[in-house]
Amino acid sequence: MISIREQDYGLDVALYGEFTLADFKLFEAALMKRAGEQRKPDVLLDLSELKDFTIDMALEEVKFMRAHESDFGRIALVVEDVWIKLATHIAGMLSDARSHHFETLEEAQAWLKGAEPL
């Protein structure tokens, strides 16, 4: 399941349970809409409740990131699970996106709002 909210800096996206291809399509549409409204929007991805993802979603994500890697600004990741943290770190190495991991949603939002540069 996915929750998407527009913010001044870009988007807040929270994922719950399993991240499916249908969820990714909603995410992709919201990203492209926001990128059309705002130059290089930042994205907060709250993965703290994510339990799993589907292979078809992962493949679609790789294709999307390769096609749009320069369209977005910073990516703040809220994640606790070590395997998901590792997967997002590896994915970050495959793109030009500037991402950082955070323990809490509040820390991630502060970074995106510019309160605490890294």
What is the strand and helix layout of this fold?
Layout: E1 2-7, E2 10-19, H1 21-37, E3 42-53, H2 55-68, E4 74-78, H3 82-93, E5 98-102, H4 105-112
Parallel strand pairs: 2-3, 3-4, 4-5
Antiparallel strand pairs: 1-2
Search tags:
4 helices; alpha/beta; 32% strand; 118 residues; five-stranded mixed beta sheet
Give a quick precis of the structure.
With 118 residues, the chain is α/β, with parallel strands linked by helices. It contains 4 helices and 5 strands, in the order E-E-H-E-H-E-H-E-H. Helix 1 packs parallel to helix 2.
Order of helices and strands: EEHEHEHEH
- H/I helix tally: 4
Strand content: 25-35%
Strand elements, count:
5
What is the oligomer described by this structure? single chain
Description:
The protein is α/β, with parallel strands linked by helices. The protein has helices at 21-37, 55-68, 82-93, 105-112, and strands at 2-7, 10-19, 42-53, 74-78, 98-102. Helix 1 runs parallel beside helix 2 (55-68). The termini are far apart.
